[in-house]
Design brief:
single chain; 188 residues; alpha+beta; 2 domains; 3-stranded antiparallel β-sheet; two-stranded antiparallel ribbon; 3 helices
């Protein structure tokens, strides 16, 4: 991932609504930009569910859109729930001095995501086009229980207990996705 205003050949740049690359390795050079990562690990004391939240802020000044980094970030973290906020702040000027408050076409953050990502997640958009604010929430459609168990394989867990663990995981994921505690007894 290269975040830099210059020098990059303009014919190499594209802020069209299309997925960014999935590189093998990452090298970051920041020029008038920043990336921050805030982490929030927690464990639920009663139901044995642990969560790990990472808030990643990618800000760029110049010609490269942070939307092009989404595929790499999503594939790197293999998240159950992803919430993406994209906001165009301020303005830029063209060579004639005219202000541009958004310098590229965008209808949905989903248009910047690769096909495999769009197939793995259920997605909801909430956009405020007049304010150049774009918001996409994503929740994993299916998951493999073995990815959520520690020191045990799902074959070693009785089917009834497997079903209960999956139910609790789906409930936890739904509460995080919808941003509210669900009523007791509500089936997910």
């Amino acid at each position: 991932m290269l975040i830099s205003e210059e020098p990059i050949e303009s014919d190499q740049l594209s802020n069209t609504e299309s997925p960014g690359p999935l590189p093998e390795a990452v090298v970051c050079h920041l020029d008038k930009s920043h990336i921050t990562v805030h982490t929030y690990p927690e464990s639920h004391p009663d139901n044995g569910i642990s969560t790990f939240r990472a808030d990643i802020d990618v800000s760029t000044c110049g010609r490269i859109s942070p939307l092009k980094a989404l595929n790499y970030l999503i594939h790197s973290f293999e998240s159950d729930i992803v919430t993406i906020d994209y906001r165009v702040r301020g303005f830029t000027r063209d060579v004639a001095g005219k202000k541009h408050f958004i310098d590229h076409q965008i209808n949905s953050i989903q248009n910047y995501l690769s096909k495999d990502t769009r197939e793995r997640y259920q997605m909801i958009d909430v956009n405020v086009y007049q304010e150049h604010i774009f918001h996409t929430k994503m929740i994993l459609k299916d998951f493999e229980l073995n990815n959520y168990l520690f020191s045990v394989d799902k074959q070693d867990v009785p089917p009834r207990e497997q079903a209960e663990i999956e139910r609790r995981l789906r409930r936890e994921m739904a509460e995080i996705f919808y941003g509210e505690n669900l009523r007791k007894g509500l089936r997910i």
